[in-house]
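3-hydroxy-2-methylbutyryl-CoA dehydrogenase
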Amino acid sequence: MQLGPDIAAVVTGGASGLGRATAQALIAAGCRVALFDRNADIGPGVAAEIGATFCHVDVTDQGSVDAGFAAARAANGQERVLVNCAGGSVGGPNKTVARSKEDGAIVPYPIDHYRATLELNLVGTFRCIVGAAAGMMTLPPTADGDRGAIVNTASVAGEEGQVGQISYASAKAGIIGMTLVVARDLAAEAIRCNTILPGIFDTPLLARAKPQVKAALGAMVPFPKRLGRADEYARLALEMIRNPYFNGEDVRLDGAIRMQPR
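Predicted structure tokens:
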């Protein structure tokens, strides 16, 4: 797909981190971009700064997502590109079942945290895929023969979840598992779907970490020995969008790290 002024894109989680970097890269390529984000405090300012359209969207709410697509299309036209970066973990790290350090009591994982994490990451991603793909199906194919391209964000935790990451790892594994099926489901409509599995990236999730903590995390990476940068994610996302033969793939972007149990 040739990126340019005739291409509209939606980036979820677009007000910060990986989403913002990808939105900026798409805008630099000439695309019209809408940011879906539930952070209404920073979203409008980010959109104004980078030249995007801000849509206040909570991907866990169907009505919010539907309204977001309607607003994005009113501003920029029907999107051919969707990049799903919205996500995170609800609650702190918890084992499937643990023992209290205070009194040894058996403590089950809080199911509401598990369900909420899956709703945000897995269901939210699928909800946006369905909404975007339905719109893409109304478009004629591009010169490359595709109607649209979807890029999802999973995590290396989806393959090597660490102790206490059960809900996040489950959600990201689900995104990995849906990639090929979505690509096959939408193949007849010429809509492609790929997923990126980031390793340890320097994103707002690590903003509060001390410099020595970030340095230690970076030292775990075989090469290059540092945290990943958001622009590196964006570069891979754009290649997945541009390359018409890139379809149904889950690609690690992690500096060759393999996560240990702890």
